[in-house]
Specification:
By secondary structure, the protein is α+β, with helices and mostly antiparallel strands. Strands 1, 2, 3, 4, 7 and 8 form a 6-stranded antiparallel sheet that branches. A two-stranded antiparallel sheet has the order 5-6. The chain has one domain.
Amino acid sequence: MSKIKVIKVPVGSAPFVIEIENSMEGFQAEVGGGFTMVHVDDLDLWCNDEALMNGMPFNRRVGDHAIHGDFFFARHDDDGNSTSITAVDVAKFFPVLDGVHRHAATQRKDR
């Protein structure tokens, strides 16, 4: 099976780049079960489709979406197949995602 490079965004942690299996099983392993996809700018955000029902903790707000549980970003080709993120994607999304993590961590310390 082929692998793709994604931006993984775990609950309570900074994002990082990782290679995962480009398969249903690989995606399930990264989000902790069944998954769904939401378009965010030019990327696909993959997250657990039953995160709220399963009691997964809040992770981050991404656009209009409140995401619970771990999630990741990938790209897609013209046929809709998932593909690796690019260096431009990392440069664009890392500061936003990491800033959210740092802000949340600061808020938790202040409580």
